[in-house]
Design a protein that fits this description.
homohexamer; about 325 residues; Tachylectin-2, Chain A; five-stranded antiparallel β-sheet; mainly beta; four-stranded antiparallel β-sheet
Chain lengths: ~325, ~325, ~325, ~325, ~325, ~325
C-alpha cells in the first residue's frame, strides 16, 4: 500500500501518482491497482466498470457489482481519497417517486454527470429484458430518483455532457443489439427536459485495429478550450474473444457530433494480469475521470477484466494533444 | 375523433369486394390482385409495402419503389378508387426547410397518418447506413417536409397513432439490429412535439408459430370503442427463409402499451403465387388500412413477396372480434 | 380427375396409376396431385407429411395439419380409395390412460406401423419445447393411446420396423438439435417393451449431393427377400434454403443397422410447382408407403412444400433394385 | 416454337429476337425461354449456367448438368442455331495427356474462350473437395485436354480474356471460401503460359443493392473500342436467400484491372417463373455471350434458378453505353 | 504441502480442511490446489474433470486425461488420502465381454456411482464421432466391463442415482448437439436393467446469470432427508468465451425430476489462476463428491480450466440449506 | 544443399540450452523466455510470430510488431547470439523498385528463406484489405525489395522451400477466408520465377485434436536425408477460443506434397503464462528454426499469446523421428 501512502499529501486533490520513470505513455497505471475487488463487498462476485465524482469534500461513486447469481446491480460508495472506497453492501433501490416506470431488472456500467446541481447517473438498464439507457439523479448518493429510460432498446454506454448544448441536454450513446453486439458506433442525442430525446446524429463509427469491431463513449466528456475531450473504449475481435482498449477523440464544443480530432492509437490496452485475466479476459473499460485542469491532472477509473476497479493517470494537456491526433 | 369526422363525406368510397362465397375467413383477398406492379412505374424493379389515405375526394399514397439498382425510395401516388393508382415516376424529394438533417440514403415501408390536419409519413430511413424511423409531413402529397428522425438506429416499422394519447403524440416501433434482424418486439413511445421522444414501453413480444421470430406494427391503428385495433405482421423462420404473415391485437384506448386482446392465429398468410413468389418469397406485409366504420368495412393494403401491392378486405366488427381473441 | 377415374377398378387395391409414357423414372407422380390441401380441413393452414395404412377394407391415416396459428397437430382421416380423404376437423386428443405423461405441446410428421395388431403412431413430439419421438397406438383410429416418448430430445423422424428384430421392437430415428438442425444421421434402437429403448447403432450418415446436409427415415421400412427397403429423405443446403429430396437404401434383414445397398441418386426431388412453392419451398417429404408385393406396386405418400399431401408410384422390384444400387 | 421460327432466316447469325414492343430495357428475354431443361439430357436433374461459342458454322457449348445424385459435371453440346441444342448424354471425360493432375471431383459453371486457335474451358473444379478454377482446351469439343488448375482454392468464376494483355494471358476470378461464400470481389491475374499465374490485382469490389454481397465475372469479356465490356453477376442477400442478378462494367483495354465504367443498375434480375422458381430460387447467372458487332447484336446465355438454360438479347452499343454508366 | 500434512490424521476419513478464517462461503477451496496436474501422468497434456469414490479403505478414481494428441481418455487411479493420487499411465481398456459394442473413440468427463455392489462409470462417449453416455462397471478399478451406451447421441453429463427410484435405475443427463453446444437442460430417465432407458422427464432448464446458457448434472446426487442434493454446473457466455461455475439444487426423493429447491447463486466460480487460465479459461467443473454425513463434511472434486484436478470443501448441512434456497 | 554449406562456418553459434533434467519432451522451452517483448520496441503494442536466419556471423530477423493502433507491420532486427535482439524502431519500408505493386496495407507473420543468395521474406500481406502472401528479398536486412504477391487472396502462412524442387521454386501456403478462418489445410505450389505460381497440390488436411480446426506451415522446412521436416501449427477450437499448438510432419524430398510421416501429438502446446495469457490467449506459433545438423540442434522461434517472442530447443534427430511418427 506504498502507493496509497504517497498520495496522502494530495488529500484534497484528485488521486495522483507521477508518471513512472522511463515511461513515455500518455496514460499510466496506478501502482496500487486494482483499487477495488470483490473482497470489498460481501457476497459479491465482482466490482468493475464504475463511476466516481467529487462529492462533499471527498468523492462519491456508483459501482457495478455483480452478485454471485451474476446479476449486475449498482451500489453507491464513498471515499475521502478516491482510492480507498467504502462501497455500500446493499444495491441502490431507486425511488420512482410515484411514476409508473418499468421495473428495474438489472443495471450495469454506470456513469455520473453533475448537471444543474444534480448528479445524474446513467447506466445500462433492462426493459423487458433488453438493454437501454437508464437514468436517475441524486443529490446525496443515498436517495436516487429514477427517471424514464432515455431511449428504446437496444442501447448501452449512455454518457451525458456536463452542460447543455445550445440549450438542450445532450447525451452520447451506443445503439446495440440484444446480445454481445458485434457492431457499435457512437451517436449524439438532445433533450429539452431529460425525458424526451431526439435530434440524433452519428458522432463516429468504429474504425480499424483496436477499435475495429465497436466503440462506445467512456467517462463524461471533459470540456477544454480545444473541444470536448472524449475518452472512449474500442473493441477488437480476436480469435479468443473481444479485446477492450480505450483511446481518445476531440469533439466540437458547439456541435459535439462533429469530430475534430481522433487518434488511431489506444491510450491503454489490457496488458496487466488484472486486465488480462478475470471474468472476461482482456478488458479495460473506462467509466469516469476526475480532472484538475489547473494541475493538468486526470485520474481515469476503469474496469479490469470485468472483475476489478482500476485507476490510471494522465496529464490533461497530453490527453488533449493525443485526442487531437498530435501525439 | 376529428380524423374520423373528416372521413364521413367519403363514406361510400373505400375499395370493396364482398367476401367470396364459401369463404369464412375474416380477411379475404381482392380478386384483382395485385393492384400495382413494377410495370406501373418506369425503370422500377418493384413496388410494394405502401401506404394510402383518403385524400381530396379520392386517395393518395406513398409507395415503396425499389429501383433497378435495388435502392428503395418513396414515390407519391394518387387514385380515385383506391385500386387503380397513378404513381409518380420520380421519387419524393423531401424538403428539409433549411434544417440540417442527415441526408436521405434510402427510404422504405412507409406509413401515413393524418394528425392535426397534416399527413405524417413515417418510414424506415437510413442514418449513417443504419435503419431508423424517418418522419415527414405533407398537406398535398406534392411537397413533403422532412423532420428529425424519431429514434436512434436501429429501428423499423414506426407507426403513429392518429390522435394524441394523454396529450402527447404516440408511436409504435420495432427496435432492430443492422441486418435481417432475427428478433423484434413492438414498443410504444410518446412525444410532446414530434421531435423528441420518450416514455418508452414494451407493448408486446414475439410469440409462437407465425409470429415466433419477430413482430412489427402494420397500418395506423384504428380506434374502436373496444380499443385500438392493431394489425401487425409476424415472422416465422422456416428452413427456406422468413415467412411474413399478419394478424391482429387490441390495445387499450388510453394506455395503448397495454394489450387487451391478441389472436394466436394469423389473418392472412402468404398463399397466393403473388405472395409466395417474388423478390422475397412468402411475404404479406400490411402498411395501410382504409376503413368505413358505418359500413363495417376495412380495406387492407399489403405488399406481396416484396414485389407487388395487394388489397384485402374485412368487416371491421369481425376484425375487432378477432383481435379480441373472440374469434 | 381422369386419374381418379382410372383407379376405380382397383378399389380394393392400393392407389395406382401406370408410369406415364416416355417416363423412365423409378418413381413417378400421381396425375391428380396434390391429393390433399388445406381447403380440405376447416381452419387449417396446411396439410402435409402424413401417414396412411390399409384399414378396415379401405385406408386410414394420420395427417399433419398446421393451424392458422401455425401450430402443428395430428388429425385422423379415412378413405376408401387412398386418394380422396375424409380428414377429421378436430385434432387427435390422445388418451393417456391415466399415465402422468408430459403434456402434448405440438405434434408433426407422423408415421404409422402395424405391429401386433395395433397401429402404432410415431411423431415429432414436444417435451418442454424440444422435439423428440412421441408414441401412441390405436386400433380404430378414433381412440389413440399415448405412451412414453421413446427418446430424450432432440430427435425427429422416428420410424418403427413392422416386426420385431431378434425379439425386440426396433426403431430408426434422426437425433437432432433444437432448431432447423444442420446435421442429421439415421440411428437404430431397440426396445423389449416399447417403453425403454437402447442398443443404439448408427445406420448411415449423410453423404453428398442431395443428402449432404442430413438424412432421415421416411415410411415404415418394407420387408423384402433382399432386405429392408428404406425410403429416406435427404437435405441439401442451397443458398436459398434447404432442399428435401428422397432416395432409398437397403438394410440387412437381421441386423438392420447394416446398410447393404444405397443409391447415390434421389428417387424424387422437388420439381413440380406444388413441391417447389409453398410454406417451405423445395420439399418432398415421404412419410408412408402402401405396397402390394404381388402386384409389384408401391404408392408413396409425401408432403409437398410443407403445404400439401402428394402421391407417387413405383414398382417394388424396381425400388429394390434401385436401393441395392443396381439402378 | 414460333420464336424459333422467326430465327430461321438468321441461320448463319447468332440467335436473335427483336426487342418486344413497349419494352425499353437494355436486355430482353427470348420468348422461347427456357431453351434447355433437364428433359433434354437423360437422367439429369438440371442443366444451367452453361457456355457456348460459334463453332464449325454453328455453335458448340459446354453445359453444366447436375445428375440425380446432384453431382455437377460438364457435358458438350452442339447446335446449328444456338437455340436448339444437342447435349451429349455422357459427361466430358477430360484427357490429362499423361499429366499427374488431381482427379476430377466435380465441375460446374463453365466458360469458353477462343485463344490461339484453342477453345479454353474454365470452370469451378474441386481439388481435395475445395473449389478452384479448372482449365482445359479443346479443338473439336470431343476431346478436352485438362491442364493444371489456375489457382489455389478457394476460387470460382474464372473467366479468360480472349487475347493476351501486354503479352500475357489474363483471367478474372472470384476468390471465395469453401461454402456459400458470403463475400466476393473480382480479381485479375496474368500468366505467361496458362500454367503459372501471378500479378494479381483487384478489379472491383461488391457494392450496394443487387450487388451488395458478392460479384463475379460472367461471360468472356467483349472487346470494344471503349474498353472490355464485362457482364457480371451480383448477389443480394434477402431474408429468403441469395438473389442473383447481372449487370455490366467497362474495363480499360490495356489495364483491365482498371474499371472505367460501371452501372449501379442491373441488366436483368430474376423475375420470370423460370428464374424465380427452381432448385435455387431467384437466380439469373450469365456464362456466355455470342455477339455480332456489325449487326450490333448480343445474345446472352444465362442459367435460370439453377435449373434451366435461358437466352436474352441486347444491342452491343446499348450494352456499352450502359456499362459506361451513360444509361 | 502443509495442507496435505494437516490431513494425515484424518487418513481413514474423506479429505478435509477447515473453512479459512474470515471466509463465509458455503464452499471453500483446498489450500493445496491443484491436487493433480499433467506432470503426474507421463505423456499427458492435462488431467481434469475426474471422479472418485471410497474404495478398499482408501479411494479409487477415474480420471480424464487428454493425451498430447488432445485425445481424451479415462485412466484409473488410487489414493490413500483422496489427495495424493497414483494415476495409471495407461488409459482404461474396456472389456466388452464379447458384446458387439461400437468401438471406443474417446472418453471424457467420467462419473462413478456405486450401485448393487458395482462401481458404475458413466462418461461422454463417442459413437460414430458423436457424443453420448458411455457406461461400464468395475469391482476393482482394474477391469472395466463396458455396456451399451445409455442414449442416442447427442448427450453429455450422464449421472446415475445411487439407488433405484421406484424400482428402476435412474440417470440424469444433458441432451446436446454435436459441438460446443449453446443450450442444455437436465433431464431424468429410467431403466429397468441399465440397458434400455425411457420415461424421460425434464428436471430443470437453464436459467439466468451464471447458468444462463446451459446446465449439467455434476457429482452423483447425495441422498439427504430433505431430498437429493444435486450439485450441477452452469455456463454463462461472455464475450471471451464460456464461463463454467457450479451451484446446487434439491430434487424430490421419490420423483427426482421434481425440483424442490434451487439457488440462484453459484457455489463456486472460476476465480483462482488455476481455474481462470488453462486449456479452457474460466472453468470449474465438478464431477464427484465424497461425503461423510455424520461429520457433516463434503469434499468436491472439480476440474480447473480443463487442465487440472482441484478439491473444495463444504458442510453437508450448509449445502442442503443452500440448495433449498434458504441460503 | 548450398544453403547448408554456407552455414558451416556458424556451426557453433545457434542459441542452445540443454534439455532440463527430468524432461523427456522432444521440444523444451528456453529458460529465458520470452526473449522479446513490446518493451524492446518503442511505441509498440507487441512483438511476436517472427522469423530469424543466420546472417553475417550473427543473426538477422524480421519481426512482427503491432503498433498501438494495433496495425501489424514488419521490423528488421539483428543479434549476435540469437537471443538478445536489436529490433529497428521503424517498420520496414519496402522498395518496389519502380513496380506498380498494390500498396502495403499491413504485414504480419513473416518467414525468411535463403534462396540463391537472397533472403526471401514471405508474410501475410493485405491486398484491398484481404490477406495473401507478400514477398520480398533482401541481401542486407536494410533494403527489402518487394515483389508481386504470390497468390490471390485469401491466403496466409506462405513458407518457401530453401531450394528448388525439380527446377522450380516451391512454397507451402494455407488458403483462408477473410476473417478468423475456421478451416485451413496446407497446399504446395510451384513457380519458375518467383512471380507466377501454379501446379497447386494439397499437402495435408487438418486432422483431429490439437489440429482439428486448421493447420499451417511454420518455419522453412528443414532438409534431412529422410525428407523435409515440416514444423507446423494446428488449431483446436475450444469454447473459450482457438488454441494454437505446433507439431511436425515429414514430406517427400522430391515430391514435397506427399506426406511420408506425421505425428498425431503436438510438439508444444501453450502451457506457460506467456503462452496462455496475452493479446490472444493460448497461442504458440512457430515461424523460424535455426538448426545445426552436425550438432543435432534446432532452435525454434515462436510467438507466445500473440504478444511475445519465445525460443525452444530440440535435437534434430529426435524431431525427425517424431515427424516420422516413430515417436
Amino acid at each position: 500500500m506504498k502507493a496509497a501512502m504517497q498520495l496522502k499529501e494530495q488529500l484534497r486533490c484528485i488521486p495522483w501518482e507521477d508518471r513512472p520513470e522511463g515511461c513515455s505513455d500518455v496514460v499510466w497505471r496506478f501502482g496500487g491497482n486494482p483499487i477495488l475487488t470483490a473482497q470489498s463487498i460481501p457476497g459479491c462476485n465482482s466490482v468493475f466498470n464504475s463511476a466516481v465524482v467529487p462529492f462533499d469534500g471527498g468523492f462519491a461513486g456508483v459501482f457495478r457489482c455483480d452478485s454471485k447469481a451474476r446479476l449486475p446491480l449498482l451500489h453507491a460508495g464513498f471515499s475521502t481519497d478516491g482510492i480507498t472506497w467504502d462501497v455500500q453492501p446493499e444495491a441502490i433501490m431507486f425511488d420512482t417517486d410515484g411514476q409508473d416506470l418499468p421495473p428495474l431488472e438489472y443495471a450495469y456500467d454506470p456513469r455520473i454527470c453533475l448537471l444543474d446541481g444534480r448528479y445524474w447517473v446513467t447506466w445500462c438498464n433492462g426493459i423487458a429484458g433488453e438493454p437501454t439507457i437508464g437514468m436517475a439523479w441524486t443529490k446525496d448518493f443515498r436517495t436516487f430518483h429514477q427517471q424514464e429510460n432515455a431511449f428504446l432498446p437496444h442501447n448501452r454506454n449512455g454518457v451525458l455532457f456536463p452542460r447543455k448544448i445550445a440549450g438542450r441536454y445532450a447525451m452520447l450513446s451506443r445503439p446495440s443489439d440484444n446480445n454481445h453486439t458485434a457492431f457499435g458506433d457512437i451517436y449524439y442525442s438532445e433533450s429539452p427536459d431529460m425525458v424526451y430525446w431526439g435530434r440524433h446524429r452519428l458522432v463516429m463509427k468504429r474504425s480499424t485495429g483496436w477499435q475495429a469491431l465497436k466503440i462506445g463513449a467512456g467517462p463524461t466528456p471533459i470540456e477544454t478550450p480545444d473541444g470536448w475531450l472524449l475518452i472512449y473504449h474500442g473493441v477488437l475481435q480476436s480469435c479468443s474473444g473481444y479485446v477492450y482498449s480505450f483511446g481518445a477523440a476531440m469533439l466540437d464544443l458547439d456541435q459535439p457530433w462533429k469530430v475534430i480530432g481522433r487518434n488511431k492509437k489506444y491510450l491503454l490496452a489490457p496488458q496487466r494480469q488484472y486486465e488480462r485475466v478475470g471474468d472476461v479476459n482482456n478488458v479495460v473499460f473506462p467509466c469516469a475521470c476526475l480532472h484538475d485542469a489547473s494541475a493538468d491532472r486526470v485520474a481515469i477509473y476503469y474496469g479490469g477484466a470485468d472483475t476489478v476497479v482500476c485507476l490510471a493517470f494522465a496529464h490533461l494537456s497530453e490527453l488533449v494533444d493525443f485526442a487531437k491526433g498530435v501525439d
